[in-house]
Write a structure and sequence with these properties.
This protein is an alpha+beta fold. It is about 35% helix and about 20% strand.
């Protein structure tokens, strides 16, 4: 399972989401992607970040999300 965490610098909601991921034990299970490095990602996720994306299933979670929702995303 591959999990991507779409974020950007100086994003307080992204910081909250990342803290939730760390507290839930997901800290090493995702790849952090800065959407500002790719115009397509910036267009797609600019107003939606932070976003978690399970690349195996295609499922995505946009903030706000809970630790239980992340578990469900990971377990699918």
């Amino acid at each position: 399972m591959k999990l991507k965490f779409y974020t950007r610098p100086d994003c307080s909601l992204c910081d909250k989401a990342e803290a939730l991921l760390a507290e839930g034990g997901f800290g090493k299970t995702y790849e952090k992607v800065d959407i500002e490095t790719d115009l397509e990602l910036l267009d797609r996720y600019g107003e939606k970040i932070p976003v978690l994306h399970n690349t195996d299933t295609g499922e995505k979670l946009s903030w706000p999300f809970t630790a239980s929702q992340v578990r469900e995303l990971v377990e699918d």
